[in-house]
Q: What sequence folds into this?
């Protein structure tokens, strides 16, 4: 049993805009690429050229269909990774203390040296955000690129998670959600950002900006014909249009 | 217990070195930072300084590391030793390989250069490969545009002097309404995503017109799930509504288009051509005087409504056609699958965006007539489209219709609308015409591909026989500006219009997903004639990977991966320009190959030197260029103009200047690219803007200013229509007259896609698109990407799903007029009710790409290609027309009609083909 810090100095996390995510998977492979050579053991792949390839990914994108009663069906692309919960059940369930939440920024990490690969944390996570690395036998999860965001070997502008840096549509935002003045907090306020499955009581840090209302064409103002073309013929229409260009009407 | 005080290294060293080059995981050509540790590639990210991707990178780009280490990489030149297709090869040395190629090619050049057909697939060096083929002297060269999106390219050039593709872009900063027609995820991949993100961030409207709601259409504020092949009809209905309400930009039409030009109304050989004065120039009627005046004279106010000696303006012809009740929303709604009210709402929304809040940039400018304008006023509505509307047999006219919609709104090259990237705008008249006359031992007199102005430029011999093996630029497809790669193998196999000897392919998977009618193409490649020889006697192929095509070649020239090579992304070809800057770039070997492989372009130069091709040898016969890098730096297309524009001469010259031996080193130091910025005052209205024209000449894009007008009325098209009507000394084959009359209409027109003739028995449309993570990619076997998209299913709309009683895990028999497949199905609600679709190019042949034979791509994966023939079913007279657009020859993939029947659960898709013998070992663990 591992304890959570009561309060963290910051609550670093992601704000993901579901109105903007096109489901391109860029964040998925950028994450894979960075973390394959980043914090902890590489993200292995089993049977990468075989009949049933499977590997460790810390971030995956799913697409869901919604069928509203009164509007055309929708597709929502949904990136899924660790939400860095305040009440992270994956931490409290860990028998060795390998899973922990950092006091300084709220990032939930796995100390791989202490991880015994029991998998309890993955069972405890209601979001399916942890993946056991099958080669190393340790639990892997989003680190918020803890080895990027403070990395003095990187230019300052690159000190953000790899998924945020790469996102072509800019649908992913990174920042301190405990600071109401931060860009991410303001986005959440403006766009009605939501917690994922709040009923689970995990108090996730990450927020999702919901898709804006769609398929609501303006009913009010259809174009009015200049005149009754059937009655006037093309010549009448032409006179009317060209009067307009001459500023007569 | 708590571990919160655990100390971890948050500042690890990232890599030993970062090398900046250009991605090649698709056609987007983003800048990448390649991190190297101990000499190995350890991480790839986007280059923040790069104009295309500004630091971001797509799923393909970030997976490039798996491409450089892919087990499917070829290792050494190979020579076929068993029957073709058996996969029996022996490894040979490069000297043997090149000698073999020369032994085959030299006699062809000396006697009949046309017997070499050289076609390149995902080639990004077409200005070079085309030049090589030109020096060889064969008329048979093109890249893959014929089955890609030539309709979009050609319609753009003939209408606007610029095309969508990556050659233009919405004004992302200022546009208020962006409308995307059809699948278009690849050109431009990241710039469109970045742009969509900008629109979303500031709440601009995005509307998707697409039978399928995925990707960009999923985030669109509005989705119009149109029936495939009817986009042109919808667009012309929008134009109807705009004209009806007078919501068109009359000033723009009068100044910048041929709307005020007069159409010859007199019956005879000139009917329908633009009326010209004694100097052979079009003219207008000046509203001030009511008299004819030069179209380009200062102060002239062209009268759109003029009638002169019985000849009416283009504007009147246009208005007459589209105001017709035939184009009213109520008349087209059922065919488009879009309610009439919805069409009228869309027209109103477009008009409001364009005219109610014009964008004004306070930048004075002067037009080509010498008129000064105090500011730049534009229409903040923009459009984009690619193969979704283009890959139909009515795609050319549909693309032209979309450009007409842009034009009537004044929404091209104005602030807030759609803008061109240098070297565009470039009028059709500034492009070459096709060159095709082959002479033994001689080069062609000019480039192969170009823009036909009239029947006299067709690549057709006096006896009526097409000169090109793909029948490009023939009466069957006069404007085939990208050639017809999809016809090369069928025509070469049939010896129609003639026999060839050697088929030379680069990066083109013609034995699999790049051919229609794949199974039959494989037979064509292996079939022998009565003399026991293969019908296509020799096949040379260059690829970096063990693709399906490798097994069907006689000689394999293994290429490098993209991180191991030199390339130039050139203004002579397809540069990385943005609307505000011309740009070009390089690739350079950020790692050295660990195999006995060579960059294809260097190999081609070596072959050229051995063949003694002009421009590739010195006077004494020695090779002129050491390799492709040497060519990039020293080649001059015209004096002072080379493949790269930056750092010319002593390193300070841009655009024009002598070759610089340090040029590539300078590019490397600059991050792999160079930009020349369009000056203030020149950034909009480029086709008519003096400051832009002068800048373009200084940079070397043109030799003299080339102002021009947009072609609402297309004279080249009318010339072909006239021929079809019996005018002129060059006449089309009798059978082609009716369709030329229809398709070569000088005003945009809609006709049903040819595939619809099968609608009665095949009620559903069938489409393909590639997932964004694989679009335009040569790497779908990539270890990471195949975990994301390793399977494909046929997506079926709700009504069909229910009618057929489909359940999860089911397969369906899918039948088209020419083929049948059995494939897994999945339900999709956000889909046009008459459409099924799948992800393209997931399916692989067993044994290819170093994958396990049990790979899902090979077992359950499938291609729709088996259902699509390069020819349509026979007509009543027995004739079989090409399954293509009659204007350009673009393969009409999206015309496909099918029916589906439930067959219950299955284990594997059909058809299955014998396992391809392996030319590289199966992949094991990843690097």
A:
């Amino acid at each position: 049993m591992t304890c959570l810090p009561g309060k963290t100095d910051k609550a670093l996390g992601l704000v993901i805009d579901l109105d903007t995510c096109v489901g391109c998977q860029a964040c998925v492979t950028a994450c894979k690429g960075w973390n394959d050579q980043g914090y902890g053991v590489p993200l292995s792949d089993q049977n990468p050229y075989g009949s049933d390839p499977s590997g460790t990914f810390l971030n995956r994108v799913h697409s869901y269909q919604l069928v509203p009663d009164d509007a055309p069906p929708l597709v929502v692309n949904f990136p899924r990774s660790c939400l860095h919960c305040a009440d992270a059940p994956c931490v409290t369930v860990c028998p060795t203390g390998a899973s922990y939440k950092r006091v300084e920024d709220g990032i939930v990490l796995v100390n791989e040296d202490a991880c015994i690969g029991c998998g309890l944390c993955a069972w405890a996570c209601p979001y399916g955000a942890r993946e056991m690395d099958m080669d190393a036998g340790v639990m892997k999860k989003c680190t918020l690129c803890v080895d990027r965001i403070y990395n003095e070997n990187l230019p300052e502008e690159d000190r953000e998670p790899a998924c945020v840096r790469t996102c072509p549509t800019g649908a992913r935002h990174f920042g301190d959600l405990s600071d109401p003045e931060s860009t991410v907090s303001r986005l959440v306020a403006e766009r009605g950002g939501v917690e994922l499955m709040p009923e689970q009581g995990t108090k996730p840090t990450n927020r999702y900006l919901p898709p804006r209302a769609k398929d609501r064409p303006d009913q009010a103002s259809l174009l009015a014909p200049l005149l009754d073309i059937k009655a006037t013929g093309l010549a009448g229409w032409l006179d009317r249009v060209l009067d307009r260009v001459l500023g007569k009407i | 217990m708590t571990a919160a005080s655990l100390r971890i290294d948050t500042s690890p060293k990232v890599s030993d070195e970062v090398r900046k080059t250009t991605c090649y995981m698709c056609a987007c050509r983003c800048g990448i930072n390649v991190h190297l540790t101990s000499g190995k590639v350890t991480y790839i990210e986007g280059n923040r300084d790069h104009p295309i991707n500004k630091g971001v990178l797509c799923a393909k780009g970030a997976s490039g590391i798996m491409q450089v280490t892919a087990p499917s990489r070829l290792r050494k030149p190979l020579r076929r030793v068993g029957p073709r297709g058996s996969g029996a090869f022996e490894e040979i040395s490069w000297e043997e390989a090149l000698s073999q190629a020369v032994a085959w090619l030299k006699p062809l050049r000396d006697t009949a250069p046309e017997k070499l057909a050289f076609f390149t697939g995902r080639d990004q060096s077409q200005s070079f490969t085309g030049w090589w083929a030109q020096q060889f002297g064969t008329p048979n060269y093109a890249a893959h545009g014929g089955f890609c999106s030539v309709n979009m390219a050609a319609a753009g050039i003939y209408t606007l002097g610029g095309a969508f593709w990556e050659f233009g872009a919405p004004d992302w900063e200022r546009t208020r309404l962006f409308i995307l027609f059809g699948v278009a995820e690849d050109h431009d991949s990241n710039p469109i995503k970045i742009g969509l993100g900008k629109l979303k961030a500031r709440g601009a409207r995005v509307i998707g017109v697409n039978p399928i709601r995925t990707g960009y259409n999923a985030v669109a504020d509005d989705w119009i799930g149109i029936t495939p092949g009817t986009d042109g009809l919808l667009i012309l209905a929008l134009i109807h509504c705009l004209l009806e309400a007078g919501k068109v930009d009359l000033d723009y039409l009068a100044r910048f288009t041929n709307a005020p030009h007069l159409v010859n109304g007199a019956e005879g050989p000139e009917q329908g051509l633009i009326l010209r004065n004694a100097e052979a120039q079009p003219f207008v009627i000046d509203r001030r005087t009511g008299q004819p005046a030069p179209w380009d004279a200062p102060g002239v106010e062209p009268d759109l409504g003029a009638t002169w000696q019985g000849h009416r303006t283009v504007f009147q012809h246009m208005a007459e056609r589209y105001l017709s009740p035939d184009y009213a929303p109520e008349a087209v709604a059922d065919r488009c699958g879009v309610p009439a009210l919805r069409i009228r709402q869309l027209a109103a929304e477009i008009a409001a965006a364009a005219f109610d809040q014009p964008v004004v940039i306070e930048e004075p400018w002067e037009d080509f007539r010498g008129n000064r304008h105090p500011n730049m006023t534009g229409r903040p509505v923009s459009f984009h489209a690619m193969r979704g509307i283009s890959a139909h047999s009515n795609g050319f006219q549909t693309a032209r219709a979309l450009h007409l919609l842009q034009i009537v709104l004044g929404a091209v090259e104005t602030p807030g609308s759609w803008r061109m990237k240098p070297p565009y705008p470039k009028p059709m008249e500034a492009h070459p015409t096709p060159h095709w006359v082959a002479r033994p031992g001689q080069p062609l007199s000019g480039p192969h591909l170009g823009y036909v102005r009239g029947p006299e430029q067709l690549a057709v011999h006096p006896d009526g026989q097409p000169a090109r093996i793909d029948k490009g630029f023939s009466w069957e497809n006069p404007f085939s500006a990208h050639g017809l790669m999809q016809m090369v193998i069928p025509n070469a196999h049939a010896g129609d219009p003639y026999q060839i000897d050697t088929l030379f392919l680069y990066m083109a998977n013609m034995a699999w997903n790049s051919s229609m009618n794949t199974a039959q193409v494989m037979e064509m490649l292996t079939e022998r004639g009565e003399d026991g020889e293969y019908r296509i006697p020799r096949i040379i192929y260059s690829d970096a990977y063990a693709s399906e095509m490798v097994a069907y070649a006689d000689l394999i020239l293994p290429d490098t991966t993209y991180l191991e090579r030199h390339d130039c992304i050139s203004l002579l070809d397809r540069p990385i320009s943005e609307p505000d800057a011309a740009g070009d770039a390089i690739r350079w070997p950020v790692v050295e190959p660990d195999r006995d492989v060579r960059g294809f372009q260097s190999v081609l130069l070596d072959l050229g030197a051995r063949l003694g091709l002009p421009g590739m040898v010195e006077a004494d016969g020695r090779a002129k260029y050491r390799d492709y890098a040497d060519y990039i730096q020293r080649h001059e297309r015209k004096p002072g103009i080379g493949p790269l524009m930056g750092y010319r001469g002593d390193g300070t010259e841009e655009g024009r200047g002598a070759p610089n031996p340090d040029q590539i080193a300078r590019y490397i130091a600059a991050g792999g690219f160079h930009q020349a910025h369009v000056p203030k005052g020149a950034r909009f209205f480029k086709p008519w803007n003096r400051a832009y024209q002068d800048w373009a000449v200084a940079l070397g894009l043109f030799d003299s200013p080339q102002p021009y007008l947009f072609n609402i009325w297309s004279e080249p098209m009318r010339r072909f229509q006239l021929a079809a009507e019996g005018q002129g000394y060059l006449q089309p084959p009798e059978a082609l007259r009716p369709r030329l009359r229809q398709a070569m209409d000088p005003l945009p027109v809609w006709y049903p896609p040819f595939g619809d003739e099968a609608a009665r028995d095949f009620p559903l449309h069938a489409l393909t698109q590639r997932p964004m993570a694989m679009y335009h990619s040569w790497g779908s076997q990539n270890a990471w990407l195949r975990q994301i998209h390793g399977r494909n299913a046929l997506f079926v709309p709700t009504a069909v799903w229910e009618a057929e009683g489909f359940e999860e895990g089911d397969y369906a028999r899918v039948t088209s007029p020419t083929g049948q497949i059995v494939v897994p199905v999945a339900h999709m609600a956000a889909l046009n009710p008459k459409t099924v679709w799948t992800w393209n190019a997931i399916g692989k042949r067993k044994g290819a790409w170093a994958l396990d034979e049990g790979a899902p791509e090979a077992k359950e994966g499938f291609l729709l290609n088996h259902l699509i023939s390069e020819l349509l079913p026979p007509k009543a007279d027995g004739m079989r027309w090409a399954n293509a657009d009659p204007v350009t020859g673009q393969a009409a993939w999206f015309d496909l009609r099918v029916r589906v029947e439930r067959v219950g659960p299955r284990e594997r898709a059909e058809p299955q083909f014998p396992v391809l013998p392996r030319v590289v070992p199966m992949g094991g663990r990843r690097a």
Remarks:
- Chain A touches chain B through 94 residues (CB under 8 Å).
- Chain A has a mean pLDDT of 94.
- The two ends of chain A are 81 Å apart (CA to CA).
